[in-house]
Amino acid sequence: MRENVVATRLDDDSNEQFTALARSKGMTKSALAHMFILDGIAQFDRRNDALLDRVEALINLVTKSNVLAASAVVSAALPPGVGGTLDDAIKAQMRTHIAEAVRLGHNISSTYDKGTFRPGGDNVPSN
Questions:
Q1: Rounded to two decimals, what is the model's pTM?
Q2: Which UniProt keywords apply (predicted)?
């Protein structure tokens, strides 16, 4: 197997520490650097996998939170005691109300993403 050279620069303090560590281990600086690189690659792969697992768990939690928030919006829009007995006109009104809430949510999200959302500021409509 062919070996390649990898050069790096260290400031004086780091080089002194690295040299002292190599001496204390009875190794050349090249051998210690080689060991660090191989160990770092192995640890990077494990950390990367763990990070991806955490990101996936967070995505699942955010998705669940969004579903629960949407359920809360629908629940808040329903008058107390009203279940499946709504007539078509009230159902249509509820759909319109929920669609408007979603539209406003998109506007708030977009404004937030642009960095222009100011809670309590002049971009918040008053009732």
A1: 0.39
A2: Plasmid
